[in-house]
Amino acid sequence: MNSIFKNILIGLAAVRTNLTRVILTSLGLTIGIFTVSIVTAGVSSIDKEFDKSMEYFGNDKIYVGTWPWSFDFDWWQYRNRPKIDEDSLEYITRYSTYVTDISIKKSTWTRGSFSNKSSFLQINGVYPSYAEMLSGTKIVNGRFFSQNEWDLQRRVIVVGGTVRDGFFDGENPIGKKIRLGGVTFEIIGELKKQGMGMVPGGTLDTLVIMPSSTFNRILTRWGFAELVLKTKPEDMSKAKEEVGMIMRLARKLKPGENDNFAVNSADAYQTQFDAIKIAIAGMGFLVTGISLVVSAIGIMNVMFVSVRERTREIGIRKAMGATNNNILVQFLSEAVAISIIGGSTGIILVKLITVALSSYLPVEFNLLLIFYTFMVCVFIGVSAGMIPARTAANLNPIDALRHE
Q: Is the pTM of this model over 0.70?
């Protein structure tokens, strides 16, 4: 063990002696490690942000609407579909065995104003049961509207965090009144702020929620509607199939007719996101792979040069009793050291970049990258240095001593 440690120190001393050449050689590896680390950190951060966005849709909810949540369709085939209405909910309530809760969600945009401030806001009209179907957020101030308020078509609303900040500058909005479409509404509840989501519509921060009965009376001329159905996550696939059959029954579609509605859930976005993520990661790892191969070739070339330059030194060490394994460990240590220098530089650059961007983008630095990078560097160093090290170890000491 002591002999191995001494040979490693000899190899490291050679690295320190030729530091400029080592830095230039490890530059390619630095670029490769930097690229793979940025891609890994970026994909990991995007995953977390996407999961956060998906909390709004939930893994326990089904959305029945006119349009499918997909980009792979011809829009003109769906534009003349009949609108979603509340009559279908009666069929779902009566026949479904997997749906545990239901609500309509009617949406539109209108101008909201308070004092001298105004902005276009998205309005959602829902059932009182929608309060139990919220995911990714909750009521943090005030309350949701009651069944009695829904029955009486009260002008009461619940606002998202961005609406609160925009109109009231962080002040308590409960009890205050804002105008929506020229009609005055009282704020009775405030939702916890979620932050900007990656998926369109994947946040409640910019929404105003009111009773759907009030929505029908005041904003009935605009907007679109979809059904929000709650089920158990483990029953999602069965519930979607069941809801599809019930909707066909509600709309009196014949066996040969195509669906004139869409049954959606969060997994539709997940499938599309996974394809995009794989494409991004694939391109990043392709560039990284090329860079690492080029780096390994560069390290191997430098090690061959080092063996040639130090042939006489190798002969002297062998004449003094150094074994082939001693020489092998010496040159392998030098190759691994070059790799680790390049990888460590890449990790430092990644850390600096993530710290600089953390205030603007959701990029996180995973500490496991340090361990993985170290292992990759050791593997590249051993792979690239093995042939030159074996060449040095197998030199005939007499021929080596004669080398000029």
A: no
